[in-house]
Design goal:
Elements: H1 3-28, H2 39-42
Length: 48
Amino acid sequence: METWQIIAIFVAVFGVVIGNLMLLKHAAKMDFKVPKSDDNEDKKSPDE
């Protein structure tokens, strides 16, 4: 393998790892809100 190919592979792998770490850090800061649901709608009987 030529030197430029080794450097390109190293940069690609390094980019993927850094990108995944940044995404994980960003996702850890997100607030996941649970939507409100009416209990009456969820408890309907199958006959209705």
